[in-house]
Amino acid sequence: MGTNIYVGNLSYNSNEQGISELFEQYGTVHSVKVIEDRETGRSRGFGFVEMDAEGAAAAIEALNGADLDGRALKVNEARPREARPPRRW
Length: 89
Known about the structure:
By secondary structure, the protein is of the alpha+beta class. The chain has a single domain, classed as Alpha-Beta Plaits (2-Layer Sandwich). It has two helices and six strands; from the N terminus they run E-H-E-E-H-E-E-E. The protein has helices at 16-23, 53-63; strands spanning 3-8, 29-36, 43-51, 67-68, 71-72, 74-77. A four-stranded antiparallel beta sheet has the order 2-3-1-6. The relative contact order is 0.30. Keywords: RNA-binding.
């Protein structure tokens, strides 16, 4: 298993293919997932890339602040998801 990378400030025009091609310059990309809104199916402006540890470190260093589709990316190692209390209706 590789390192999971958070990629934020994505343009709504950014897609998994383009993100994969950008990160492949730094190492082997195992997976790319752009997070979408459940209601609209539109990108929520962030996603995750999983790649080998060595390539991940190089990608984070090189791509944090880099431009993709007119937006300055925010790239860092993903943190585990925090537990949230259950929703009440």
